[in-house]
Amino acid sequence: MPRRDPAQEKEVLEWIEAVVAEKLPNQPYEEVLRDGQILCKLINKIAPGSVKKITSKGGQFQMMENVQRFQEALKKYGVPEEEIFQTVDLTEKRNVVQVTLCLYALGRLTQKHPEYTGPRLGPKMADENVRNFSEEDVKRLRETQVGLQAGFNKGATQSGHGGFGNTRHM
């Protein structure tokens, strides 16, 4: 499992504070986020109305519902499924690094939403680099460039491998 980075966690908390315009409690990173309330407030500031109900009282199960509502809102906002953490990653502190990566993914995605004008998290996303070549340019380059298929065949080969799935016997 990757190691936690206190500098990244601090940056995430500072970003959340700036977005929700609310001072966060002076607690460890995972404790601030654990009940999901601040996460729901965060997504509601970024995309208003994303989470309709934020539970502020109750046991562990009610707090897990906040985290699940946040995760559903992330999916609707466009955060890729593979970048969203599992509920237990946060509530049971199984993989806090994944929580941080997920929040960075959200911060990165806000750059693609022009309606969001708040503070940014993480590096600036690259702009599209469209290239338009004329037919003459494409034809000229195809004639002058040597393709990789015309490359060299004197290195290691798979001869003696024996087929897909087999190990090589030496």
State the major sheet.
Answer: none
Estimate the mean pLDDT confidence.
Answer: 86
Distance from first to last alpha carbon: 35 Å
| Annotation, overall tally of beta strands | 0
Helix count, DSSP H or I runs of 4 or more residues? 7
Q: Which architecture of the domain at 6-112 per CATH? A: Orthogonal Bundle
SSE string: HHHHHHH
CATH class of the domain at 6-112: Mainly Alpha
Structural class: mainly alpha
Strand content: under 5%
Approximate helicity band: 40-55%
Explain how this protein is built.
The chain contains 7 helices and no strands. With 170 residues, it is mainly alpha-helical. The chain has a domain of 107 residues: Orthogonal Bundle (Actin-binding Protein, T-fimbrin, domain 1). α3 runs parallel beside α4. The radius of gyration is 24 Å and the shape is extended.
Gist?
This protein is mainly alpha-helical and 170 residues long.
Topology (elements, then pairings):
Elements: H1 6-20, H2 29-34, H3 37-46, H4 60-77, H5 87-91, H6 96-109, H7 135-144
Domain Calponin-homology (CH): 6-110
Function: Thin filament-associated protein that is implicated in the regulation and modulation of smooth muscle contraction. It is capable of binding to actin, calmodulin and tropomyosin. The interaction of calponin with actin inhibits the actomyosin Mg-ATPase activity.
InterPro entries: Calponin-like, Calponin/LIMCH1, Calponin_repeat, CH_dom, CH_dom_sf, SM22_calponin
